[in-house]
């Protein structure tokens, strides 16, 4: 459920030369990292997401700028604004998510527990709801 999706406060090493944040698979996040991908050059007003994953666990980070993620577990919905590079949103499997409100120049980085597999996606909301009930 969306109650299992948590904002994780990542380590932040502050320094007069600039700040440094790091993420260790299995330590700061409850999975090992098999893939990294990022969204960038997102035009104003764009919406992304609109799917759920069967197996995939993810940590979503606003590396630069900000955006919103709406999490939906078929019962409850929650809108989360991400705007700090030292915060990551942990998203567990079987959560429907939509993303919008991208600021100009924003970069969304995702750390994922598995390689890309289209068969891991529910891209139809009704199919997703059916799978939840099954
Ligand atoms: C998610 C949000 C935050 C690949 O070939 N490899 C990949 O690793 C990924 C992530 C995507 N693709 C292909 C699949 C589609 O043809 O890139 C195209 C766009 O993917 P999608 O429409 O799923 O993009 P988003 O931004 O809606 O969703 C992505 C991730 O798919 C998803 O896991 O949680 O970012």
What does this structure look like?
- The chain is mostly beta strands and 134 residues long.
- It has one domain: Jelly Rolls (Sandwich).
- 7% of the residues lie in helices and 41% in strands.
- The chain has one helix and twelve strands.
- The chain has one helix spanning 125-133, and strands spanning 7-9, 12-13, 20-21, 35-39, 48-53, 58-64, 67-72, 77-82, 87-91, 96-100, 107-112, 121-122.
- The strands form three sheets. The chain has a five-stranded antiparallel β-sheet, with no helix packed on it.
- Strand 7 and strand 8 form a beta hairpin.
- The longest helix is centred in the last third of the chain and has 9 residues, at 125-133.
- The chain is globular, with a radius of gyration of 15 Å.
- The protein starts with 6 loop residues before the first strand and ends with a helix.
- The model has no long low-confidence stretch (mean pLDDT 98).
- The structure holds dTDP-4-keto-6-deoxyglucose (T46).
- DTDP-4-keto-6-deoxyglucose binds at residues 37, 39, 48-49, 58, 60, 97, 110, 116.
- DTDP-4-keto-6-deoxyglucose is lined by residues 37, 39, 48-49, 58, 60, 97, 110, 116.
Question: How do the strands of the widest beta sheet line up side by side?
Answer: 1-9-6-11-4
What sort of overall outline do the alpha carbons produce when their principal axes are compared? globular
Strand content: 35-45%
Q: What is the CATH superfamily?
A: Jelly Rolls
Distance between the termini: 15 Å
What class would the helix/strand composition place it in? mainly beta
Give a list of the ligands. Answer: dTDP-4-keto-6-deoxyglucose
How big is the Rg? Answer: 15 Å
Percent helix, as a range, is under 10%
Poorly predicted regions: none
Write down the CATH class.
Mainly Beta
Number of strands: 12
